[in-house]
Amino acid sequence: MADKKISALTELTVPGIGDLLHVIDTSSTYQNKKMTVGNMFQNIPTFIAFEESPVALSGTGNTVPVGTAIDHLDLSSGNVTATLPDGTNGQIKIITAINHSSTNTGIVTVTNFHNGSSLTFDAAYETVILLFTSAKWLVISNVGSVAIS
Questions:
Q1: Same-domain status, 39 and 72
Q2: Same domain (yes/no): 70, 126
Q3: Does 19 share its domain with 62?
């Protein structure tokens, strides 16, 4: 193993909590150390941010992409309708209404929704945060009175 480059190793695409990571500890004398995946995520020493740009949905007949973390319903030029399909167990999804015009609404029909069947957004920056668990989407935060039906 000592003669291999890290870039030449086989990629692990689904790490386990006990899998080991190679860490170079810069707090001392740049020592090589190990850390489990579980310890890394239990003790994150900085803030967490989503790198991707939010997907803006407008018009009707949209599908909310499950491969993104944040999506915007752009209500500036009309009503927005979309369907949120099933996600991946443990997935977090954030949906926010932006650019609200006085009469426009955004309606997201949620496949396998624990709390109902749809979300209705009728003001700018109304936001819902969902968790996909046990084969259902579950509301974990509702900011600005997103209607759940």
A1: no
A2: yes
A3: no
In 3D space, the residue among 70, 110, 69 whose CA is nearest the CA of residue 91 turns out to be 69
pLDDT truncated to tens, each residue of the chain (149 aa)?
A: 568 888 888 888 888 889 998 888 888 788 889 999 888 888 777 877 887 899 999 999 999 999 999 999 999 989 999 999 999 999 999 999 999 877 899 999 999 999 999 999 999 999 999 999 999 999 999 998 788 98
Question: Is 19 contained in some domain?
Answer: yes
Instruction: State the residue for tokens 């009707």.
Output: 60
87 and 70 within one domain: yes
What are the C-alpha distances in Å from 74 to residues 95, 107, 144? 11, 11, 16
pTM (two decimals): 0.76
Contact 139, 115 (CB under 8 A): yes
Q: Is residue 27 part of a domain?
A: yes
25 vs 12: CA distance, rounded Å: 22
Residues 71 and 19 in one domain: no
Distance of alpha carbon 114 from alpha carbon 68, whole angstroms: 21
Cα separation, 114 vs 125, whole angstroms: 23
